[in-house]
């Protein structure tokens, strides 16, 4: 592959400047990597104000200028559509990284598309949400060839607290789906306990405070806002987050079905946690 990087590292292209993607892209530029960006809505690029980057008018122009292109977009369909455009201009040996959450089967399909053009592919979804992205402490779960993951590790380090290579193509997506499923099942357990406490006329806020101090503490518990402890899941965003979680749980179910595994009970429990999240936040913020 022709080296188009600079002394500061490979040229990184970025598509997807949403809630998590924007602080991730800014972190890449702040770490000194040459950053190139394209957005469907040009106004989205305003979020990169203050960091050095090169703006492109087409996906193909961005692809032609970059060694590594990161995607942080909503669905597998979006990823595959963008990949088709990127592959028109990416040089052999370039890398496409999907940071979104999706199906392992879609990761394999993306890898096959890349292989036909001599382009490497990684699935590298992230966990932690916008707060972790802004503080450069995301957990990045990587699937794909080990040497390719090593090439991209310093870029991942720019926005991550932890970078873990899980194995072959699709392993990063599987890990993310398991992560999300377990979070939602933990939420269901928390909702069960809070409902029991409310029925017994306990002070739910004080109970949550002490549970956070004891062996019952968990990330799921600590993500829940209370009047005394603001956190990521709050009354003003809980409906949105509940819907996103339900979609992620359906991805988990589809991935298990594609693998020939009956995980219906786990799916139901996870969906319970997702659907009950607004009521749980309501209990904690009367």
TrEMBL record:
Protein name per UniProt: NAD(P)-dependent oxidoreductase
Active site per the UniProt annotation: 176
PANTHER family: 3-HYDROXYISOBUTYRATE DEHYDROGENASE-LIKE 1, MITOCHONDRIAL-RELATED
Family per similarity comment: Belongs to the HIBADH-related family.
Domain named 6-phosphogluconate dehydrogenase NADP-binding: residues: 12-167
Keyword field contains NAD: yes
Domain 3-hydroxyisobutyrate dehydrogenase-like NAD-binding: 170-263
Keyword NAD: yes
Keyword annotations of the record: NAD, Oxidoreductase
Organism: Streptomyces boncukensis
GO MF terms, alphabetically ordered: NAD binding; NADP binding; oxidoreductase activity
Domain of life where this protein originates: Bacteria
């Amino acid at each position: 592959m022709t080296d188009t990087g600079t002394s500061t590292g490979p040229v990184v292209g970025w598509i997807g400047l949403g809630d998590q993607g924007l602080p991730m892209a800014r972190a890449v530029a702040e770490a000194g990597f040459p950053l190139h960006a394209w957005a469907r809505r040009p106004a989205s690029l305003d979020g990169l104000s203050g960091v050095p980057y090169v703006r492109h008018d087409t996906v193909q122009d961005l692809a032609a200028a970059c060694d590594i292109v990161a995607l942080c977009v909503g669905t597998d369909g979006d990823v595959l559509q963008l990949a088709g455009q990127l592959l028109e201009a990416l040089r052999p040996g370039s890398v496409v990284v999907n940071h979104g959450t999706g199906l392992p089967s879609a990761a394999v399909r993306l890898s096959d598309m890349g292989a036909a053009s001599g382009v490497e592919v990684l699935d590298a979804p992230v966990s932690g949400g916008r707060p972790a992205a802004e503080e450069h402490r995301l957990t990045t779960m990587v699937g794909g060839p080990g040497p390719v993951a090593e090439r991209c590790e310093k870029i991942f380090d720019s926005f991550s607290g932890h970078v873990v290579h899980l194995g072959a193509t699709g392993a990063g997506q599987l890990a993310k789906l398991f992560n999300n499923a377990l979070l939602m099942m933990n939420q269901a357990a928390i909702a069960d306990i809070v409902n029991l406490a409310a029925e017994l006329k306990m002070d739910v806020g004080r109970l949550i405070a002490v549970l956070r101090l004891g062996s019952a503490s968990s990330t799921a518990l600590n993500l829940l806002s209370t009047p005394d402890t603001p956190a990521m899941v709050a009354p003003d965003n809980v409906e949105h987050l509940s819907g996103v979680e339900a979609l992620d749980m359906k991805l988990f179910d589809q991935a298990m079905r594609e693998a020939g595994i009956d995980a219906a009970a786990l799916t139901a429990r996870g969906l319970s946690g997702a659907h009950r999240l607004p009521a749980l936040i309501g209990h904690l913020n009367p």
